[in-house]
Every structure is written in C-alpha cells, then in structure tokens.
Amino acid sequence: MKIYTSIIIVMLILITGTKAVSSDMILKGIYQGKDLYIMNPMLDAGEEYCVYEVLINNEKYNEVINSSAFRISLDYAGLQFGQEYVVTIRHHEFCTPKLVNPEVLKPLCTYEIISHELGYDNVLRFITANESGKLTFYVEEFRWGKWLEIGQLPGEGGPGNRSYSIKTYPFNGENRFRIYQIDHLKRKFYSDEIVYKVNKEPIRIMTKLSSVSKEIVFSENTSYEVINEFGEEMITGVGNVVNVSKLNKGQYFLNYENEYTLFIKR
Q: What is the H or E stretch that residue 17 is in?
C-alpha cells in the first residue's frame, strides 16, 4: 500500500512539473508590413534560451529563435496587409521574453480613398484600400463656415477594397466633404477634400421669421441649427420642421442649407 501511494505521489509530481515548465505569450495584431522583435533571456543553466517555440496563426515558425534577441518575420506566414494574426510564443517558466516594439500590434491609419461619388439619392459613397485596422471613419462636411461631423462609419479593415456610404443633405452650390481616422496615438489622418458642385432648387423657408411661436417649416429636408445671441447651439438636426416651442423669447440665428438668417421667437 505504501509503495502504491508513493508511486501515485511521484506521478503527480511529474505531471505537475510537466505542466509548470512552460508558458505561452500571446500576441494579437494586424499585419502592417512590420516584423516583431523579441528579447529572449537565457536560462540560469546558461545553455538554453527562454523561448523554445513560436507559432504564427497556429503554424510553426521555423526561423532561428535560439538567440538572445530574434525577429519574427510575419511575411513568413504569408500574411496580407491588414490581416489579423495571432503569434504564440512558447517559453519556459520562470523567464519572460519581451516584445521590443509593441506598437506594431496596434492598427495605424493607412487607408487610401481610391474612388468616391455623390449619388442622385444624396448618398456619399467611397471605396478604400490598404486599411490596416478596424478604425472608425469620421465624415465631415463644410457648412456655415465650419467643419461639422455628419456621421461615423465603422472601418472594416483587412486586405482588399472596402465600400462605405453615408446619407448627406447637399445644398445648392459647392459642397465639401472630408474623412478622417484616429490611430492609437490619438493622431487624426484626413483624406483630401471631396468636392461636388450641386445644382438644385434652393430650399425656401415657409414660416414668417419675424414672429415664430412653435416651429419653422422648410420646403424640404435640410440640415439646420439654431444659435442664440451668445453663439451657443440650441437646436440642431435634419428635417423640414424645426420645433422652437421650448426656446425663450428673443432673437436667434437660423442656419440652414449653406445660409443663415435671423428669426424672432415670440
């Protein structure tokens, strides 16, 4: 009985020891044409290094890693620009390899707009290439003397071309748009301006602005905002009716189309 118990204890020690001798470092990133650099300390015995195996998307990496520092060449795995990847670094316990350039794992703003159009339905469509990551696209238009955000679109990232679209409310005349992304360093990367000349019937105000009590009505849908005498934005939106019933009595600016005017709230 004692011999049997001793055998079990030895087996448990061996099993526990086997599980404890190694650990995995998992690195998840998006391929942007750059390699990973690893610091690889030597074990106390002085004959073996910390890392003993590297996998890229579960495929063994067969380049040299038996060194105090080594490079993981990601194109070895045939990754395409913008493709997601997982690198598994298997190493001995009681030592820790170090990724020298962790910024490589994070997506950068690398997109290009290769075509765009403003359709008859007033939808702005654009196609991108070389998106290295799933970063949000912010779409702005120039109206009333300033750039205004009109929407956000989740970037798809990955290799190949990507298509996006957003509803706009262009006015009669020159309409200017621009698009940008923000990377992990909080840097904004703007596209070139997208400019369209639109010929359409100007939108008319159907309400007498010298005495407004409840609402202002336009001849059709448009972007609008109401500004008070201190320059504060009170109301903003898109549509053909502006509800001003909750405003205090007084004088306000009304921005619509690419125009502005005054109205009196009674």
A: helix 2-20
Question: pLDDT, tens digit, for every residue of 67-109?
Answer: 999 999 998 888 888 889 999 999 999 899 999 999 899 888 9
Res 146: pLDDT: 95
Amino acid at 147: W
Amino acid letter for position 6 = S
C-alpha of 125 from chain center: 18
Phi, psi of 80 (to 5 degrees): -95, 155
Reference 133, options 163, 161, 116, 111; nearest CA is 111
Q: What are phi and psi for residue 112, nearest 5 degrees?
A: -130, 140
Domain residue spans of the chain = 2-105, 115-198, 215-265
CATH number of 115-198: 2.60.40.10
Contacts of 102 (CB under 8 A, 6+ apart): none
- The answer to whether residues 53 and 64 touch, using CB atoms and an 8 Å cutoff, is no
Angle (CA) 39-42-48 rounded to 5° is: 120
Q: What are the structure tokens assigned to 161, written together?
A: 């071309």
| DSSP designation for 74 | G
The reported pTM is 0.79
